[in-house]
Write a structure and sequence with these properties.
By secondary structure, the chain is an alpha/beta fold. It contains 20 helices and 15 strands.
Length: 489
């Protein structure tokens, strides 16, 4: 008899091993994501043509997917455990357990399971029941036909740690463990589960909790019934892009996004004896934050260089107005820049009114993000301070003028003032002393600044020379602002 549940488990395992979402697999097969979800949940079976496509796509035989023979187990478990998982377990027994689960789990899921096992918040065991009866008769309390009072049979429960199971037993029980673990956590990504502890409703301020709907979709709901869907992997708060700064017009599809990601960028922003990205990375490496918030991240061109090097468990929250750009970010960092240490969550929201509770973020970063918020720049900067933990740090770059009294800066300020109001990004052009005072008034205990490059020489004419990236004439400083630590009781 065909076991739909087991076939669904194997299809899900093969999909995860291939690094595909349900939506991505559906697109390759020409079916709906809902159809894939029903296969994996054991509600429906693919038709024979779909089985052929699945077998071809995953380099399996149809029999190995349907029957779960050794071909399936061997082919799908050849990959070694991720280094991040290996590092959590020095003992061979638990590594052997995780290797059996690796057949049915993605690397991210496997790391999440390994982390909980190492912290002692998760245990895997097999329950065995031992029952002693008297001659196999009269097994309930009461009188038998002879009128004798019989006792309830003796019963004992035995819990056997999964790590002690033999190879064959592990192979047979692993899909059941994997399915149960999936049901305990839902089909929700580890990052979405983790951020549930940090979120608050932007409408009423109550805690937002992640849930799975009957359609196996993730949603965040508060106790007052406000809910926000996870669409294309992005938690969507109904935000809209800024007029004149529409990603939807600039990047119409994922291929446009990839061209932008691979473009070397404006040489102006690569100036300086030490690149801004390297200064920022040295601070991240020193502090090893567990939760990082990227404010108005755009295509995440700042933090992406750090994401490749993080080698400690870390949750990275990308925030931006544009759902579209975050959808592409989610895909890019899930498919092309995977780091098993890092869980990534994308929030499409107003960064001047973040759906994140006070004082829960270890580090706020922004690569030109505050300035990209235009008229809301200072509101976004204050939000970054609000969500930081006491003792946390904001690491960001800021455009700075050289000296308001110099002829060069005066000329630039005049030219900048000739721009149409729709182009003006800053309400005020700050020199470094003025910006340090802003940080102090915001509440930061201290701000360390590092000049990356200085202001450009002003042009001779009376026309502003740039049509886009209009702040490139200004100098750039990287700032590290520390929030005052909590008082010692």
């Amino acid at each position: 008899m065909i076991d739909r549940e087991q076939i669904g488990i194997r299809i899900a395992a093969l999909r995860k091993k291939a690094g595909l979402s349900q939506q991505a697999l559906a697109e390759k097969l020409g079916v709906s994501a809902q159809a894939v979800s029903k296969w994996e949940g054991g509600k429906n079976l693919p038709d024979i043509d779909m089985f052929r496509e699945l077998a071809w796509l995953f380099h399996m035989t149809i029999d190995s997917i349907v029957e779960g023979d050794l071909t399936f187990a061997e082919k799908s478990s050849r990959k070694e455990l991720p280094a991040s998982v290996e590092a959590l377990f020095p003992d061979a027994e638990r590594r052997r357990l995780l290797q059996s689960l690796a057949t049915y789990c993605s690397d991210t899921e496997l790391y999440s399971i390994a982390r909980e096992l190492s912290e002692g918040s998760l245990e895997l065991s097999v329950q065995a029941s031992i029952v002693r009866t008297e001659g196999g008769a009269c097994q309930k309390i009461g009188a038998c036909q002879e009128g004798h009072l019989r006792e309830k049979p003796e019963e004992r429960k035995v819990s056997i740690p999964a790590s002690l199971l033999g190879e064959n037993t592990l192979r047979e029980t692993a899909p059941y463990f994997a399915k149960a673990l999936g049901e305990m956590t839902g089909s929700m990504e580890p990052g979405l589960r983790r951020i549930g502890e940090l979120m608050c409703c932007p409408e009423c301020g109550e805690k937002l909790s992640p849930e799975n709907t009957d359609e196996n979709k993730a949603v965040f709901i508060c106790k007052n019934g406000h809910h926000y869907d996870v669409t294309d992997g992005v938690v969507y708060f109904g935000s809209r892009e800024i007029p004149g700064e529409l990603w939807s017009l600039y990047m119409k599809n994922y291929q446009d996004y990839l061209r932008e990601q691979r473009h070397p960028g404006n040489p102006r922003y690569q100036m300086g004896a030490v690149p801004c990205s390297e200064v920022r990375w040295q601070m991240l490496k020193k502090l090893r934050p567990r939760v990082i918030l990227d404010v108005a991240c755009g295509t995440c061109n700042g933090l992406k260089y750090d994401l490749q090097r993080i080698n400690w468990p870390c949750l990275v929250i990308m925030t931006d107005l544009s759902h579209r750009i975050l959808k592409y970010n989610k895909r890019y960092f899930s498919e092309e820049m995977v780091n098993p240490y890092v869980d990534i969550v994308c929030l499409a929201c107003d960064c001047a009114h973040l759906p994140i509770r006070d004082g829960c973020i270890d580090m706020v970063v922004s690569n030109g993000g505050f300035e990209s918020m235009q008229s809301k720049m200072m509101a976004g900067f204050r939000e970054g301070y609000r969500v930081l933990k006491p003792g946390g740090h904001a690491v960001y770059n800021i455009s700075i003028v050289g000296d308001h009294d110099s002829e060069n800066t005066k000329k630039w300020e005049y030219l900048y003032g000739t721009l149409d109001a729709g182009y003006s990004l800053h309400e005020k052009l700050y020199d470094i002393e003025e910006w340090e005072e802003v940080c102090k008034k915001t509440g930061y205990l201290s701000t360390e600044t590092k000049e990356i490059y200085g202001e450009l020489p002003a042009p001779d004419g009376d026309e502003f020379p740039f049509e886009n990236e209009i702040l490139q004439w200004m100098g750039e400083h990287l700032c590290i602002s520390e929030k005052r630590p909590a008082p010692v009781s």
